[in-house]
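Recall that a protein's primary structure is simply its ordered list of amino acids. Everything else, from secondary elements to tertiary packing, is in principle encoded there. The following example makes that idea concrete.
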Amino acid sequence: MRRCAERLPPFSPRQSQAGVVVCELTTHVKRAFKYRFYPTDAQAAELSRTFGCVRKVYNMALEARTTAWYQRQESVNYNATSAMLTAWKRTEELAYLRPYAVDAAAAPGRE
């Protein structure tokens, strides 16, 4: 059985001016995970529709913000963009956006 000390990263002890032993961490642990999924045909179609709706909303919001800035030098914040999205979802021509969670796309540049 391994002891706890064996699982710790290596330290380089040194003595300070006061005679106290100071340990410094000498290594860094970096980890990364990659995941891959294989959607079924129905899942792939749903993902395609969702990403298409998100792309449409993002482009519309970006156009609205760009127009507001270049025509009126007005900055459109997230709340105004979200209100525009709500209005867009209520129109008949963009009714297909209603079942999708496209709210995050309404804020171009907001991370």
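The radius of gyration is 26 Å. Residues 1-8 have pLDDT under 50 and may be disordered.
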